[in-house]
Specification:
Elements lengths: L2 H9 L2 H6 L3 H10 L4 H19 L3 H22 L3 H25 L6 H7 L2 H11 L22 E5 L5 H9 L5 E6 L2 H9 L3 E4 L17 E4 L17 H18 L27 H5 L15 H11 L6 E7 L4 H13 L4 E8 L10 E8 L19 H5 L6 E3 L18 E3 L15 E2 L8 H7 L17 H10 L3 H12 L4 H13 L1 H25 L6
Parallel strand pairs: 1-2, 1-4, 2-3, 4-5
Antiparallel strand pairs: 5-7, 6-7, 8-9, 8-10
Helix pairs in contact: 1-3, 3-5, 4-5, 4-6, 5-6, 6-8, 9-18, 11-13, 11-14, 13-14, 18-19, 19-20
C-alpha cells in the first residue's frame, strides 16, 4: 500500500471502511475520484443515511444505509473506469434519496402552511434540491394540496396526457372556469409551444419516458388521456383494428395490472395466499418499460399508446396516490374489445363506476362535426350531473364561421373541375357551406370556396373546431408549418365537449349555461355583446331608482 493510499484509507469514515471488499484498491479508487461531483453526492447521501440509522435503528433503515455505502464504492470505480453514465446514475440515485429524505423531514414537521408558504420558507439549496426532485412536474406538487374544513381538496390537481395544443384544458379553464391545477404533457414541440402561449402549464416529453410513479403524482385527483387516434380512425389505415394488435394491447394491459399489483386473486375454499390479503396478487417485478416492450411489435406504434390509459392511473395508485377519476378521449371507432379491456382493469383496481359515451361536437355548439368516444372511471359514486344538453345548441354553419353568403360549397380536396351533371367537384370533396363542416383534418388548410377559390384561414379553422380565432399558433421546425398548425387544430378535444364531460366529472351543474355563453361569444360575438350590454342596462336601470329612494331629504 502506498503512503497516499494508506493516508486516504485512514481518513475514510468508519462505515466506508466496513463495506470495502479490497481496502487498498477501494481506497485508491475513492482517492482518485474524490472530487468528482457524482461521488460527492453519493458520499453525502450515505452520510445522511448512516446518521439516520444510528438515530433510528431498524432493519429497513440499515438496508438503506448499506445500499448507500455500496453505491459510494460502485460510483468510485465507475469514475475511475470512465463509465460516465453509470457514475451519473449513481449520483442521480443518491440525490433522489437525499431529496426524498428532505421531503419526509418537511412533512414530518406537520406544518399547516400551504405548499407555496413552505417553498418560500426554504433555503436556496433545499429549494433547488426539491425543484430537481420534482422535475418535470411543478415543485409545489411535492406537497399535499390545501383542503377545506370538510377535508376536500380546494384546488384539485389534474394531469392531461397527450394534451396537444390545449383544447381540453381550454374547455375546463376557459369555459367552466374551474378552480383546478392542470398540467399537460405532449411530445410535439409546436403543440407544447401553442399550449404554453395559451397560458396552460405544459411539459414537453414523451409520455412513455416519464415515471408514472413519480412522487409529484401522489396528490393528483384526476388524470385525462387523449392518445393519438390515427390508428383507429376510419380515414386512416386502421392498423389498431388488426386482430393481432387488439390481442397484444389486451395482454399488455393485463401485464400492467400485474405490474401495479392489481391482478385479482381467485380464492378457493376461503383460503387466501400469503401476500394476497387485499384480494390482489403481489406486484410483479416488471418495470413499466418492460410492460410496454411487447407493444414495439405493433405496425402502428400509436395504437399501443392506449395502454397508457391503464398504466398511468394504476401506477399512480400503486405508489400510494389519491387519483379518484380517469377520463379518456379517443376515436369513436375504437375497438370495443380494447375499451372493455381498459375499463375492466380500472374496475378491478377500484374504479368501480365506469361509463362511456359517443358524442358529436356539433351537438354541443361546434361548427364542425367531430364524433369521439369518451370514457370515464370513478372510485366514488356515479356523477350526478348529466352531460346531455337540455335542448339543441345554436346551429352554426361553415359559412357563418368564414363569412360567406348562403348557397356556396367548399372543396376539401382542392379546386377540382366541376361535373356539369352533378354540379359537384369531380372526385367528390364538394360540400355545402350552409351546414356545419365535416370533421377538420390536417388538410383543412387547403379547403377552398368552389365558386371563388378563396381559401379558409387558420383563424377560420380555429373557430370551426371551437377555439377562438386568435388562439395561439406556434410551429417549431422548418418552414411556416401550415400543415402542422392545422394538424394541431385537428387533433384537439373540442372545448365545448370537454366542458360537458368535465362539468359531469367535476360536478358543475352549470356547465351547459357556461358552454352556451361561450358558443354565443365564439360564433355570434355581436349578439353576445349586445346581450351583455342589455343586461348591464337592466341592472343599471334598477339600481338608480333604488339609490334615489335611499337618499335622505335635504334639510
Amino acid at each position: 500500500m502506498t503512503e497516499i493510499e494508506a493516508g486516504e484509507r485512514a481518513a475514510l469514515p468508519e462505515w466506508l471502511t466496513d463495506v470495502a471488499e479490497d481496502h487498498e484498491e477501494d481506497a485508491a479508487a475513492l482517492h482518485q475520484a474524490a472530487n468528482h461531483p457524482d461521488l460527492i453526492e453519493c458520499r453525502r447521501t450515505a452520510d445522511l443515511l448512516v446518521d439516520f440509522t444510528q438515530a433510528y435503528p431498524n432493519q429497513e433503515a440499515d438496508g438503506w444505509a448499506l445500499d448507500a455505502m455500496l453505491r459510494v464504492i460502485q460510483c468510485a470505480y465507475a469514475i475511475v473506469d470512465g463509465e460516465a453514465e453509470e457514475a451519473a446514475e449513481c449520483g442521480r440515485a443518491a440525490k433522489g434519496e437525499r431529496a426524498a429524505m428532505t421531503l419526509d423531514r418537511l412533512e414530518s414537521e406537520g406544518t399547516a402552511a400551504t405548499a407555496a408558504e413552505r417553498l418560500v420558507a426554504l433555503d436556496r439549496e433545499t429549494y433547488e434540491l426539491l425543484q430537481w426532485y420534482a422535475g418535470p412536474w411543478p415543485v409545489e406538487w411535492l406537497f399535499p394540496p390545501a383542503k377545506d374544513g370538510q377535508g376536500r381538496v380546494i384546488r384539485p390537481r389534474i394531469v392531461v396526457l397527450f394534451t396537444g395544443p390545449g383544447g381540453l384544458t381550454h374547455g375546463i379553464l376557459r369555459i367552466l372556469r374551474a378552480n383546478v391545477d392542470i398540467v399537460g404533457v405532449d411530445l410535439d414541440r409546436g403543440a407544447v409551444a401553442t399550449s404554453t402561449a395559451a397560458g396552460h402549464r405544459t411539459i414537453h416529453a414523451d409520455v412513455t419516458d416519464l415515471d408514472p410513479e413519480h412522487p409529484c403524482l401522489q396528490h393528483v385527483t384526476g388524470i385525462a388521456l387523449t392518445p393519438p387516434c390515427q390508428a383507429y380512425n376510419p380515414s386512416g389505415l386502421r392498423k389498431g383494428h388488426y386482430a393481432g394488435a387488439i390481442e397484444l394491447i389486451e395482454r399488455t394491459v393485463l401485464e400492467a395490472a400485474a405490474a401495479a399489483g392489481f391482478c385479482p386473486v381467485i380464492t378457493t375454499g376461503g383460503n387466501v395466499a400469503p401476500g394476497c390479503e387485499d384480494g390482489y396478487a403481489p406486484r410483479s417485478r416488471m418495470t413499466w418499460d418492460e410492460v410496454r416492450e411487447p407493444l414495439e411489435q405493433l405496425e402502428d406504434a400509436r395504437a399501443g399508446l392506449m395502454a397508457e390509459v391503464v398504466i398511468w392511473p394504476l401506477a399512480m395508485l400503486a405508489r400510494g396516490g389519491s387519483v379518484e377519476w380517469v377520463a379518456v378521449e379517443q376515436s369513436s371507432a375504437l375497438p370495443a374489445r380494447i375499451e372493455a379491456a381498459l375499463m375492466d382493469r380500472l374496475s378491478e383496481a377500484g374504479w368501480h363506476t365506469t361509463e362511456a359515451f359517443t358524442l358529436d361536437a356539433v351537438d354541443y355548439g361546434s361548427a364542425s362535426h367531430r364524433k369521439r368516444r369518451l370514457m370515464a372511471a370513478y372510485r366514488g359514486e356515479r356523477p350526478f350531473v348529466d352531460l346531455t344538453p337540455t335542448g339543441p345548441f345554436p346551429f352554426t354553419t361553415f359559412a357563418d364561421v368564414v363569412g360567406w353568403p348562403a348557397g356556396r360549397n367548399y372543396l376539401t380536396r382542392g379546386n377540382r373541375p366541376v361535373d356539369p351533371v352533378t354540379g359537384r367537384a369531380k372526385g367528390g370533396s364538394s360540400r355545402s357551406a350552409d351546414l356545419p363542416s365535416t370533421c377538420v383534418t390536417a388538410t383543412a388548410y387547403g379547403w377552398t370556396c368552389a365558386e371563388t377559390g378563396e381559401r379558409i384561414t387558420l383563424e377560420d379553422i380555429s373557430r370551426l373546431v371551437g377555439l377562438p380565432g386568435n388562439y395561439p399558433a406556434h410551429h417549431i421546425g422548418r418552414g411556416r408549418g401550415v400543415r402542422n398548425l392545422t394538424q394541431q387544430r385537428a387533433d384537439i378535444v373540442c372545448p365545448m365537449v370537454a366542458a360537458a364531460l368535465f362539468g359531469r366529472i367535476l360536478g358543475d351543474p352549470r356547465w351547459e349555461a357556461k358552454t352556451r355563453a361561450y358558443v354565443e361569444e365564439l360564433y355570434r360575438p355581436a349578439e353576445a355583446e349586445e346581450g351583455g350590454q342589455m343586461l348591464l342596462q337592466m341592472l343599471f336601470a334598477h339600481r338608480i331608482p333604488a339609490q334615489n329612494t335611499c337618499r335622505s331629504p335635504v334639510t
